[in-house]
Design a protein that fits this description.
The protein has 18 helices and 23 strands. By secondary structure, the protein is α+β, with helices and mostly antiparallel strands. It has 2 domains: about 5-35 and about 295-345 and about 355-485, Rossmann fold; about 45-270, Aminohydrolase, N-terminal nucleophile (Ntn) domain (Glutamine Phosphoribosylpyrophosphate, subunit 1, domain 1), CATH 3.60.20.10. It comes from Paenibacillus crassostreae.
Amino acid sequence: MSHELKSAQVPLDNSTDLPLWTGDFYNEGTGSSDIFDTLKEECGVFGVFGHSEAASLSYYGLHALQHRGEESCGICVADGKEFNYHRGMGLVKEVFDKDIMATLVGDVSIGHVRYATSGDSRLANAQPLVFKYRDGNLAIATNGNIVNAPQIRRELEEGGSIFQTTSDTEVVAHLIARSSKDVVEAAKDALQRIVGGFAFLIMTNDKLLVASDPHGLRPITMGRLGNSYIFASETCALEVIGAELIRDIQPGELLILDEDGLKEDRFTEPQRKALCAMEYIYFARPDSDLNGSNLHASRKRMGSRMALEAFVDADMVTGVPDSSISAAIGYAEQTGIPYELGLIKNKYTGRTFIQPSQELREQGVKMKLSAVRRVVEGQRVVMIDDSIVRGTTSRRIVNLLREAGATEVHVRITSPPFKNPCFYGIDTPNREDFIAHNKTIDEICQEINADSLAFLSPEGLIGAIGGDNANDHNGGLCLACFNNEYPTTLDFGGEEKGGCGC
């Protein structure tokens, strides 16, 4: 498939179908109107049990998980009697300083980095959420989304509960606080009531509870540092503090840590394993491991399989930084076509108060990416990317390469076409806004101004990831965003809500 679109004929992207952002920053979490058409990170959690420097370990762990959420962060520490905590808007290095860290004394801690969807980026929703209840202090941090939170929230409000946040996490806190049982049994009852994808860290004055949803949709791992236990959304956060990986927390599992040590329990029987496929494709850092599979190696295999499924003769291969670099290397190695740094990411875009004109907004991708003219000029380029959501950013990047002199741009996507929203913790558009929901692959190719376009098959994705669950249904993955096969019931009670509800 080839489209005769010459570089000189490529118009500037002057579409007006995307509204201008309305937040204080041009690139803050703004849901469907974000200038960069990419899936938004989930959240990240980090926990420590039994270490005198629990807060400092959490700081470094959260810093390693910063890619999972840049809107807000927080750390809560228990010293056996009281909680000490601090939360703030912004990056970990911005929210915490030496003086604040000195106040976070204790040997048990939980921490959180958060990505917020539009309207929810405020301090009240920053985690860990901290509460006073009849048995003392309670703090909760989670990554994920509770599908039936609206119904439970209405029920609790009718029973007199007063909510302070719009976070799903507060629903679980109220369920625990209203129970007459001890905190472990109350947590089990609460976790049995909720439906969705989640990884919870629940802390009291003398206990730390760790839980994973029945399908294991959201990742969480356990490590050891000396005699201390460490918990993190990704193994890269264990590595940064020198902790040894023990294992992944299993679906439906509940770990209880207290003065008696670690007790392995569960709040429900495990359902079919369905870890979010986008963790492998896009979200997790390449130096992390999930279910026995390294992310960099998995992404290289995705690129290699992509080359076998959709080879195209070209002069160079380049990847869209950062998540597609590994796949681009795999594609290049499989085909023998040289890999080049045709696109460079500006790591220091940060957040800016400047809201430029519509014309400059349409060129806004250049604040994030630059094409290397001396590398791509006169070349037939294979551009590897991890996904296409609405197609706007893909079109801008293709045009960026063409403006830098690329004679052909062939796009290869190392995931199947995105067609369905996520209800388990990823901020995705409505179904109708996915370009693959409304257009054929040929039509998408024309829309993004590429010479050819191909997506990785579901079978290719499952085979490339491999890992400990390779023989399970769908390779132990949730592929709902591709095949509409959701692992849980989706009873929203008339209030369908995707994205991250934490």
